[in-house]
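Researcher: Structure for this, please.
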Amino acid sequence: MPAPATELDVSPAADKPAILRVGDIAEAPSWVAEHRDQLRSLVDEHGALLVRGLPLTDAAGFGQVARELAAPLMPEREAFAPRWIYEDGIYSSSKWPPNQPMCMHHELSYTLEFPGLMLFSCLGAPQSGGVTGVADAAAVLEALPSDLVERFEREGWQLVRNYNELVGVPWQEAFATEDRSVVERYCRENHIEFAWDEMDGLRTKQRRSAIITHPKTGKRVWFNQIAFLNEWTIDPEVRDYLVMEFGPDGLPFNSRFGGGEPIGDDVIALLNKVYDEHTQREPWQTGDLMLVDNIARAHSREPYEGAREVLVAMGEPVRLADCFPTVTPS
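Model: Predicted structure, token format:
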């Protein structure tokens, strides 16, 4: 029999996410349903929770668990990398080269509605690496230089995207439609500038807050994808080739200061350094379930070797307008 809900014991550690070890669980969805409130309370307390020992073996079981914990699940829009779709709301991890890191970021932080809770399920652990690290976004904000924080607070950040068949993700895939008018309506409704080119490519630009306030805790947090979606995180050889072929404004994605000025590699290096100093890591084990407060914690994916199957779900939508943004979306 599973332990009573009041007996859920978590192992905290400074360099690891909170870990809850369970055992002798016959069925993951029913156990999660019984302990839902306690699990969500632990996420609220720790920002991220790794549940170890559940019999999670397939996408269907993870889908049941995800809907139990975080319904309604969100579809992905404005994707920056391909994903496989297992069922509605259940995705593979972003298909990113395994030898390259996915730097710290908050999922869909460039949208006007983003997930409040991220759910990850490891169906197959890699031979080595591949950790999904987490970092306290309030602590990261506190550790950044005050002049840099003040600038981003005043200006926000700007994300520029290029969608086409040759570079990045095609707009048809990113917006889940073949209809240009649907994309244009979405962009207008979501304060995104857009322009089409003669090759049926799409270029977008949007300004968002880099700092918001957590709607539950009231903490100010560093909330964006500046450290990830910028030219300096692209492999140098790949970046040089893309610039040669498409020009400096033709990269699949790039982040700028909110006023449009470039962000230097020194700023990105500083952000990654601060993130690294605040990262908690725990290697995946097959069957692990990880719950991450998407506002309180940034997450990453480290390089890996061997097959890695980690599924993702995004739930509990939160509106940017409810998080006291410091700039008006534009």
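Researcher: Any notable elements?
Model: The longest strand covers residues 113-124. Residues 1-6 have pLDDT under 50 and may be disordered.
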